[in-house]
Amino acid sequence: MDKPKVVLGVSGGIAAYKACELLRRLTESGHDVRVVPTASALHFVGAATWSALSGKPVATEVWDDVHEVPHVRIGQHADLVVVAPATADLLAKAAHGLADDLLTNTLLTARCPVVFAPAMHTEMWEHPATRENVATLRRRGALVIEPAVGRLTGVDTGKGRLPDPAEIFEVCRRVLARGVREPDLAGRHVVVSAGGTREPLDPVRFLGNRSSGKQGYALARTAAARGARVTLIAANSALPDPAGVDVVPVGTAVQLREAVLKAAADADAVVMAAAVADFRPAAYATGKIKKKDDREPEPVALVRNPDILAEISADRARAGQVVVGFAAETDDVLANGRAKLKRKGCDLLVVNEVGERKTFGSEENEAVVLGADGSETPVARGPKEALAETVWDLVAERLR
After folding, report:
1. Per the confidence metrics, is the pTM higher than 0.85?
2. Angle formed at CA 171 by CA 148 and CA 247, multiple of 5 degrees
3. Quick check: helix, strand or coil at residue 234?
4. Is 201 buried (19+), middle (13-18) or exposed (0-12) by CB count in 10 A?
């Protein structure tokens, strides 16, 4: 089979050096990559580096190799164009159809999915001109990833940092796998919860569960790759932030409830993939609970945590909001799942069997997605992103 053809555009920002890592991941995973830098990008990373890493010649101008008509051919033959970093200048040119070099010509001729990974100072990202350019590109079907928050050039910190190249690669891989030019969740805001809550007993102990957060993170990554604005409520997860996703860290069930209710106020869909503790200790010991001679410890009294899924299902923040729950069961999986779906009042319930060596911490999952309309959608064992794609297919169908 032919290798997927990827054009990696690199514009003139200090983050250009990070594109080398993205290029390495693309080539090592079997993609045929052509690097098209701007002239400014070559001030940061030289043409020899791009040629050596891609195995292909590098040009910036339409006048190079004119007999091959590169300004038309490169875009026409691409399966994906990704620009990383995409500066404010590059976004402006792309939004207004300017074509003064090889990269901007390529963007005009491409009929494949196009991904932009912006990187710039916060003031530039937040400027009305940039925001309007980004909105224009998204309206035309391009996927513009939200930049990360962190250290920028010099001592500045804020939103505008290029997302981690490994996470940009994951977006590209998912976009290529779908093979759809226009993201079907563009313009939608979705909220995803992930991980497992921890209910403190004393300063060093807590009641928790085995959830790794991998399924929730797969849902967040997949939604971002399908064009959604994603808020990820992450409970005690050490996983890297997905590219283009707004991550809100929480610890307990009460904190998770507060974050979900706040984020869901303007959300089109809420997916509760986190493993939320049903109970928490009734009392919190301010000091570490000590062993006392040979006496048995005092029983730990528990109280119920709020039922977040039932609450947001019963009181939708906006008309048409789709709510998805997860049911982790150890026995009578489908029977318990159907009962839970009715009890919680959500639109979809992802039911799977869990255990010490099942699902938790694994890279794979197997489930049945039950619908309030009586539908059942089985998902065979496979990567957790496959289940995520199925969930978003069902959500998108209901949003339409």
Report:
1. yes
2. 35
3. strand
4. middle
The set of residues, in sequence order, having a beta carbon less than 8 Å from that of 69 and lying 6+ positions away, is none
Cβ neighbourhood burial of 214 (10 Å; 0-12, 13-18, 19+): buried
- Picking from 319, 331, 281, the residue whose alpha carbon sits closest to that of residue 301 is 281
Closest CA to 94 of 15, 41, 42, 38: 38
In eight-state DSSP terms, residue 278 is S
Residues belonging to the active site:
209
How large is the angle between the packed helices 214-225 and 384-399, nearest 10 degrees? 50
Q: What does the DSSP assignment read for 362-377?
A: -SEEEEEEEETTS-EE
Nearest Cα to 160, choosing from 121, 115, 116, 117? 121
Question: Is residue 274 within 8 Å of 196, Cβ to Cβ?
Answer: yes
Q: How many CB atoms lie within 10 A of CB 84?
A: 30
- For 177, residues 6+ apart whose C-beta sits below 8 A from its C-beta are none
Tokens standing for 68? 């091959």
Percent of the chain beyond pLDDT 70?
96
Peptide bond into 85 cis (omega under 30): yes
Please tell me the predicted confidence (pLDDT) of residue 359: 55
**Chain position carrying tokens 């957790």:** 384
Residue ranges in the chain modelled with pLDDT below 70: 1, 62-71, 355-361
Identify each DSSP E strand in the chain by its residue range. Answer: 5-10, 32-37, 80-86, 114-118, 143-144, 148-151, 157-161, 189-195, 199-202, 205-207, 229-235, 245-250, 269-272, 279-281, 302-304, 322-329, 348-353, 364-371, 376-383
DSSP line for 163-215: PPHHHHHHHHHHHHHHT-SS-TTTT-EEEEEEEB--EEEETTEEE-----SHH
Which residues does residue 348 pair with via DSSP β-bridges, in sequence order? Answer: 324, 371
The angle, 0 to 180 degrees and rounded to 10, between the axes of the packed helices 19-28 and 47-54 is: 20
